[in-house]
Amino acid sequence: MNEIDEKKTDKGGNSSGERQDERREERREYRRDERKDRYGGHMRGGYKGERRERVEKRESEGRDEIRIDIKDEEIADTETVREIVVPGDLLDGEELRAGVGTYKDDDGKIYASQLGIKNTRANYVNVIPLAGRYMPRAGDSVIGKVVDIGPSNWLIDINAPYPAPLHVSETPWKVEFGDTGRYLGLGDMVLIRVVNVDETKHVQVSMSGPGLRKLVGGHIIEISHSKVPRVIGKGGSMISLIKKYTKCRMFVGQNGRIWIDGEPEEIYLASRAIEKIENEAHVIGLTDAMDKYLSEEVKKIRGKVVTEEVEEKESEEDSENLVEEHEEESDESGREEREE
Amino acid sequence: MGDDEIISEIKKDYIYKLAERNTRIDGRAFSEYRPIRIERGIVSTAEGSARVKLGGTDVIVGIKMEIGAPFPDTPERGVLTTNAELIPMASPSFEAGPPSVDAIEVARVVDRGIRESQAINLDKLVITKGEKVWVTFIDIHVLDYDGNLFDASTLGALSAILSTKVPASKFGIGEDFPLPVQHIPVSCTFVKLGNAVMLDPNLDEETIAKTRLTVTTNEMGEICAMQKGLTGSFTIDEVKAIIQSAKTAGEEVRKKILG
Amino acid sequence: MGGTPTDIKLIDENGLRVDGRRPDEMRPIKIEAGVLKRADGSAYIEWGGNKVLAAVYGPREAHPRHLQNPAKAIVQCKYNMASFSVGERKKPGPDRRSIEISKVISEALESVIFVEQFPRTSIDIFIEVIQANAGTRCAGITAASVALADAGIPMRDLIPAVASGKVAGTLVLDMNKEEDNYGNADLPIGIIPRTREIVLMQMDGNLTIDEFNKLLDMNISACMKIYELQKEALKKKYSPVPVETPTAVLEEKKKVGEEKDNQ
């Protein structure tokens, strides 16, 4: 395969030595850079706590519709009673503006367009969808699967209605024309970032960036992407809980794919925990329930498995950094701001 | 069968790794079935029907009885015919249209199990020798595909058959009577992953597996039908072990059908 | 469509129908959302003697590519009757009736789906009739709307539908099989509940304009009741008590329930 894979790998699937240092450096660089312009004039971070707006022209009727980036925290916050709405439900008469999951009809009123939870923020009314396929947005980190190989790119399935071509120039490798198969093969899973989605929904992705790479080892499960904020939790609380008990390394892609690495019993427990969260996302007090569930299940496992001190220093740091990434994402919705 | 979708290398490796440790991705033992739920008599327009949920696989089987001519070489036996529809709603990889090779294989394997075991006493389904006999249509309708259509369909067919009433009164030739059933064949499907052989593959296991064997046994432990599928191979010992497993597992499933 | 005299008394002396219903009474309806594992959205409906399953996949890449529309999603509905769904076994495969119904339902649903949000994709809807007793296309589109919402497809509204007609000279709502076979008119209608716009309508038989207007009113008010059932089915799925959990977490469900009681 490619050079990177030929290097010695440890249990966690990381390459050892230099590459590790490089990546740590890159990550620190990245956090410093995040406030600078990256993708041609778009900013990320720097405005913690502020709303970010996106104006999209609705092609068909030429109406302006303002879309709000819902903070992941709000979605994760299900500790209060929520109102479930279905398509066609009236949301508001006059004062508010149409947000996510809604539409404004000819009568000037705002209605729900999707099955979801009604949510009012600033002067927007939104519907946080409870279902629906993942629609890629610039800035999302996702886990993709290679489903086709071309001479200068790979076709990545990111669990969306649209495939995402990954061009060789968007990888850290120097790939010769036609040599693409040596670096990524069919079925390989990659951690990539969505760079851009244009009006016709053509998706551009990149594997150049800190932490982005081909995933090796572990297990991948898929959940509904609308449950991702719940699995991450407020400020990363839920996912930290799972990591704490299962000692697994995890990455949750915005597209609903989750990579888990650790001991098999622990991977199994982590995936059961995530399945439980997915099914009980609407239950009040879920975080506490999960805490209890995980601690009990872990007792059963540790009872019969000799505890291996899995964490070599490198893996530990890696885990921490991934957690931090998630906390940032929760705070800042993990999305890039775009003015259109 | 399996899905046309490309399976991720990570998932494949993970399943193989688990197999080496004698476990499966959903925590089952190698010889364990997923939860089975059977509902009988759910379609009133059919003479017999059943819905079977085998894990996430969901199948409805309907039995329709009509009067028709017997086959020329068996003038004193009723007619039995089995069809399977892998409808597009059951999986993104099922296409609309005439039955695919997979659909035909499922139908024929289920049919073989029922026919060769003589589950239905076709001799009792003659109306006028050489002219009119009862034609039994077994229609398998797959609603949700999550692996192992063979077992779910055979289970469904048997359960439906056991709830079938021959509609003689509808045709004015007497009173309705239960379809004469004399044997209970059960199919058990195994796949081989590496060196591990597992019963009742779920979707992932079925997609990855290179070799598959379905063994149908009756209540006396006799083998009535077998079908080896996919492109790999079994050793002789593996086949013998599978047959033993099929007998045991089959008996457990039979209790569910009758219970 | 009949009209020939039969032994069946379609309307009796008290004005009641074969199954005891009043002329403007619907059969009992039960709707459940999210019943299949693989499909993106699904719904199951029991409507009198009808049992119909609807499933949605999408938006997904449209295949074959020449069908792709660069400006919007294409909506493809396939209506099919299982061979055992009717009294006399139906040969598997689409017949002309199924193809026409598929088209009519596709078009009705397309009118409410925000298709321009998903260019180059396809939204595939499958309606499978497991057991039929007249009115399957209305049951089908009613279930399909719920399945679309269950799949998270953005829509203006759900589409309830019901058929009315004329039986032994009396205007009736929601005919069953016998009434449909021996009646004089059949009028299925599907609407956008909020605006009362008509998106599905077919008619065969014989009606005066006055009769048509009366039936139209009957249909529309019945549709509004069906609409409530559709909404309820969707909301029920996300009610505080989990409706259906996979066996893997069944034991945990009990524990969580106990904790909730203690809170």
Give an overview in words.
- The complex is a heterotrimer of chains A (340), B (259) and C (263).
- With 340 residues, chain A is α+β, with helices and mostly antiparallel strands.
- Chain A has helices at 3-6, 18-33, 72-76, 228-232, 237-246, 264-279, 286-304, 313-332; strands spanning 53-57, 64-68, 84-85, 90-92, 97-98, 102-104, 110-112, 116-121, 124-129, 141-149, 153-157, 164-167, 189-197, 203-206, 213-214, 219-222, 249-252, 257-261.
- In chain A, strands 10, 11, 12, 13, 14 and 15 form a six-stranded antiparallel β-sheet that branches. A four-stranded mixed β-sheet of chain A has the order 3-8-9-5, with no helix packed on it.
- In chain A, a hairpin with a 4-residue loop joins strand 17 and strand 18 (257-261).
- The two termini of chain A are 41 Å apart.
- With 259 residues, chain B is α+β, with helices and mostly antiparallel strands.
- Chain C has a single domain, classed as GHMP Kinase, N-terminal domain (Ribosomal Protein S5, domain 2).
- Chain C contains five helices and ten strands, in the order E-E-E-E-H-E-H-E-E-H-E-E-E-H-H.
- In chain C, the strands form two sheets. Chain C has a five-stranded mixed β-sheet. In chain C, strands 6, 7, 8, 9 and 10 form a five-stranded antiparallel β-sheet that branches.
- Chains in contact: A-B, A-C, B-C.
- The A-B interface holds A 145-147, 157, 185-189, 215-220, 259, 264, 267-268 and B 6-14, 17-18, 21, 23, 27.
